[in-house]
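Predict the 3D structure for this chain.
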Amino acid sequence: MKKATILLLALTTIVSLYSCGAKEADTSTETTKPSVTEEVSTEPTTAETETTTSAPKDYVHGDDGYFNLLEEYPEIKMKEQEGGTCWLFSAANSMETAYARKNGSYLTIDPMEMLDRIYLDDKKEGFNGKNIGGWQWMVTETLTNGFGDLTIDSSVILDTDDREAIKENLRTRGSVSVGVNDTDSKYKGWHGKYYTLNYTREEFDHDITIVGYDDHFPKEYFNIPAYEDGAWIAYNSQYTSGYQYLSYCAPLEYGISHSVTNEYSEVIGYDAGNEQDRYIKTGDSTTTANVFHKAGKLAAVGTYNDFDEQDIKIEVYDSSFTNLLYSQDSVLDYHGYHTVVLDTPVDVTDCAVAITYSKGAPVEGETIDYGDTDYITKSESGQSFVKLDTWRDLTESGIEAELGIDCKPGNCCIKALYQ
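Done. Predicted structure below.
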């Protein structure tokens, strides 16, 4: 039997996936995420806009290097946020555009209903908050369990230094939620019909949604000088009268693209999410499983990927792990949350869904106190298992020693989605 080690990635694209608060300084597993706060909504004053009178006012974009997703989907409206809920309004826009892109039809998502689902008062597991602030990964971790008739079926984490990847996502998938520095009015400007934003400090306090781009947007239009032309076209839920143009030069806290579906009748999972990219590794590959007690037709399996790409094998057994009912290979080809549709739905009663990961198996980890928000995990015997010499329950006393780790791994991050 090989000893396993737990690898806790310090990737800023996950550990810093929060908004409406100061940037996290330390990405170790013991770090407490700073409290989330409401944004300061500050319109540029007359004096501030007068500083940019030397900028040309006759600019009109051309077709080259220009794209605006919302021009293709005029029924998707920009909504004005309530309080410190920018993160939810941004997420809702990402979901709505992705749904329209994928289905050719529209749906409207109420961000405040999402808030009620994420911060349920009687929740014993998941996120409990003392205000209405939050971060994008909280949306993913909660709403992949379903909300209303919908569930998040994918959340793609994008490298904000990869401009072409964000553009490709806009053209083929939908809008992208990003964290920006939006508090200080000196960063903002009005240039004719253009509302602009540029900054240099990596201090993030607000979520907006990138809906397009203009490669030739004049660098002279920004109050803080930009060193090149070009801007992201953004929906900002603080100002819904028009688009905000965010300089390509401004650093972004993260980029994430959500997609939702209404194709499944029920989603069952035990984990509170894959917070801080926690995963276990038992050798060249790692196999974990969840046992589900639900009769029906298993149509898809949900899980997280803490890497750019990794191979997996999905296996469906009876609940005693005796009879193999189904097997399918797949590739998790982006960092984020995935739903893998089964080639053939499987009729099940009690079943075990096992996944073998080539690089590491995602787990929820232990409860984390973030100050204004708590990430709460609870595991029960008979839910989650890891394959060592035999199948071992992750709640067993001393299992962390056998895995070579110093904390309980919590539940496996595997969800069962039924037709």
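The CA atoms of residues 78 and 311 lie 38 Å apart.
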